[in-house]
Amino acid sequence: MTNRHDSGAEPPPGLDETPAVPLEFAAFCELHRPRYLSYARVWLPERAEAADAVQQAFAEIAVHWRELLGSSNPTAHAWQILRETVAAHSTGGPVGAGSTGSGGPAADGLTTDGPAADGRNADGRSADGGTGSGRGAYLSTVDRADRPPDDDLAILHYVVGLAAPEIADVIGTDTASVAGRLRRTMLREASGW
After folding, report:
1. pLDDT tens for each residue of 56-103
2. What is the pTM of this model?
3. Closest by CA position to 143, among listed 189, 167, 174, 112
4. Is residue 154 domain-shared with residue 135, that is, in the same domain?
């Protein structure tokens, strides 16, 4: 008689070839991939390019996974890695954590009236009124590294369509903070209209 629960049995062919991925990391990817892809699609015009950026961000997160788990807020650190990776893809810069800076509140590019360094106005049109790049969206022309992180909240809320609790889950903060920051961003933008 054979024991069907014999632990000495070999795994099916091909199963032992997959790299060992921590279960927590696999769950993290499964949870955040759709939202990360939606965010990347705002900045990157091609689906394949957005998927590549998200995959590279997850690869970077995987490299630092143990460190992230030991941090006070792994989700916030992972969000920053994604943000920097997408920024690097959208500007053509080097890809990797820390490659584009932390995105401080310097010139935000969304509220300026004059042309940007690349000759475009804040709405993404070139000084002659055209869109130049063919993308048609000002988001692709704004230097993301110089934009306040609160603008990402507005993008996640108004463009991607996430509610404040979902945004809080994605970026690693609490819902009340997201709601307050969204209000401030809206007031800042409204005062510029």
Report:
1. 999 999 999 999 999 999 999 999 999 999 999 988 765 544 443 333
2. 0.64
3. 112
4. no
Instruction: Determine the straight-line distance between the first and last CA of the chain, rounded to whole angstroms.
Output: 80
Q: Give the number of domains in the chain.
A: 3
Q: pLDDT per residue over 137-168, tens digit each?
A: 334 444 445 567 788 898 999 999 999 999 99
- Which residues are paired to 120 by β-bridges? 126
* 51 and 93 co-located in one domain: yes
DSSP state of 17: G
Which residue type is seen at 167? Answer: I
Tell the burial category of 44 from Cβ atoms under 10 Å away from its Cβ (0-12, 13-18, 19+): buried
- Give the pair of three-digit tokens for residue 94: 């080097």
Residue 179: name the closest of 148, 154, 147 by CA: 154
The residues with which 126 forms a beta bridge, in sequence order, are 120
Read off φ and ψ for residue 120, nearest 5 degrees: -105, 150
CB within 8 Å of 103: residues ≥ 6 apart: 83, 84, 87, 144, 145, 146, 147, 148, 149
Range of the domain at 130: 113-146
Overall residue count recorded for the chain in this entry: 193
